[in-house]
Structures are given as structure tokens and as C-alpha cells.
Amino acid sequence: MTAEKLNADPAELAKFSELAHRWWDLESEFRPLHDINPLRLEWIESLAPVSGQRLVDVGCGGGILADSLARRGAQVLGIDLASKALKVAQVHALEAGTKGVKYREISAEALAAEMPGQFDGVTCMEMLEHVPDPASVVRACATLVKPGGWVFFSTINRNAKAFALAIVGAEYVMGMLPRGTHEYAKLLRPSELAAHCRGAGLELQQMRGLQHNPLTRRYWLSEDTGVNYMVATRRPLAS
């Protein structure tokens, strides 16, 4: 399968590959992901405890979430199309002695065709805003999970507030993320993501906003989905 046929933007893959060696540097551009990881992990566990579960982390990057899920007792497969980031994730798992996590360079769509209904849960965090066709990824996630299983997404809203805070503020003023990390046109409104989920046969269970104080670097969950937000869905049990 050629890169042109994949649901991936070569420029996006190149962008994250160039930064791959910095995934586990807590003072790097990826610090925000490390800072929010405990919060999103606790939110996932509050809805669907992961110990003993077979999970797939779609768009796993350097393995920040996949590694922490495995440390909670899950059997985790992390998938991505950024080769260098996957190698960093594999090396980190070896160095940290993390058990129960494996990584593969494969698209969500290809894995869904290979392993439909094989996972208890799916996570797809901070990834949908980086692909040409987010609805295709949502459908793949719905296909991967077993009936009754949970699928979790997180992304960024598309509005003036998100543009000001997540792009201008985070990338150009505060320098929290590299410039060009996000493209405004690729951001997803909650209503759009909800429609993608319904179209894929997933039932919306919960939506939470992710708030941030840049001065204290504190993050918390709220009802405000104006910028960053997370969505919990389930595949219905077979009737």
C-alpha cells in the first residue's frame, strides 16, 4: 500500500518523525502530553478499568499513553505510521522494563481489516486532527473494538477560542508546542466528532473538556469543550 493511499498526511508524519527523539524528554515539546497523561488515564479508568483488558492505542506516537496503560495491567498494542516515533516507543519500553506493550507500524484501517472485534477497548488521543479523513479512523476504531467495548477519543475544537489558545497561544506565544503542530482547518468540532461516532455505530457516553492554566501548568477536566476535549463511546452489544 502506498503512502498516497493511506489515511495519513506525509507532512504530518515527517513532522513527528523529526521530533521523535524528544518524545520522552519531559522538558521537550511533548511535555504537555506527559502533563495531561495522568488525567486522561484516570478518566479512562473511571469508565472502563483497563487491568486485564486487551487494548489498542491508535496513533500512539512515542508510546506515552500506551506505556501507562500497560503499567495499569492492560495488554496494549500501540500503532502508528511514524516509524521513528515507534522505534522510540519500543526502546523506551525495553529500557523502562514495561511489560504487556507492543508496537506496530500499521494504519488503523489496515488493522481493522486484519483484526476486527479483537480488542476490549480502543484509545485514539490527539490524533484525529492530524489525518486527512478523521471519519475513516473513527470507523476503524469502531471495527476494532468488541461489542460492548469502549472507544476513547481526544482532539481540539474548531472555533475562535481554540485558534487563539491552542494554536496562537500554545504554539506561537507560549512555545508549548512547535509552530505548525496544528492546522486550524483540521480541527474537529464536538458535533462533528459525535456525528462521525454515530455514523460508525458508536454510542456517545461522555464528553469532557480539558482545561489548562499555562502559568501553573495545571490541567483539569470540566464541562467546557471549547478547546481541548475528550469523548467516550461504546460499541453496542449485539442484539
From TrEMBL:
<keyword id="KW-0949">S-adenosyl-L-methionine</keyword>
<dbReference type="GO" id="GO:0061542">
    <property type="term" value="F:3-demethylubiquinol 3-O-methyltransferase activity"/>
</dbReference>
<dbReference type="Pfam" id="PF13489">
    <property type="entry name" value="Methyltransf_23"/>
</dbReference>
<feature type="binding site">
    <location>
        <position position="40"/>
    </location>
    <ligand>
        <name>S-adenosyl-L-methionine</name>
    </ligand>
</feature>
<dbReference type="InterPro" id="IPR010233">
    <property type="entry name" value="UbiG_MeTrfase"/>
</dbReference>
<protein>
    <recommendedName>
        <fullName>Ubiquinone biosynthesis O-methyltransferase</fullName>
        <ecNumber>2.1.1.222</ecNumber>
        <ecNumber>2.1.1.64</ecNumber>
    </recommendedName>
</protein>
<comment type="similarity">
    <text>Belongs to the methyltransferase superfamily. UbiG/COQ3 family.</text>
</comment>
<feature type="binding site">
    <location>
        <position position="80"/>
    </location>
    <ligand>
        <name>S-adenosyl-L-methionine</name>
    </ligand>
</feature>
<dbReference type="GO" id="GO:0032259">
    <property type="term" value="P:methylation"/>
</dbReference>
<keyword id="KW-0831">Ubiquinone biosynthesis</keyword>
<dbReference type="InterPro" id="IPR029063">
    <property type="entry name" value="SAM-dependent_MTases_sf"/>
</dbReference>
<keyword id="KW-0489">Methyltransferase</keyword>
<keyword id="KW-0808">Transferase</keyword>
<feature type="binding site">
    <location>
        <position position="59"/>
    </location>
    <ligand>
        <name>S-adenosyl-L-methionine</name>
    </ligand>
</feature>
<dbReference type="GO" id="GO:0102208">
    <property type="term" value="F:2-polyprenyl-6-hydroxyphenol methylase activity"/>
</dbReference>
<comment type="function">
    <text>O-methyltransferase that catalyzes the 2 O-methylation steps in the ubiquinone biosynthetic pathway.</text>
</comment>
<feature type="binding site">
    <location>
        <position position="125"/>
    </location>
    <ligand>
        <name>S-adenosyl-L-methionine</name>
    </ligand>
</feature>
<comment type="pathway">
    <text>Cofactor biosynthesis; ubiquinone biosynthesis.</text>
</comment>
<dbReference type="GO" id="GO:0010420">
    <property type="term" value="F:polyprenyldihydroxybenzoate methyltransferase activity"/>
</dbReference>
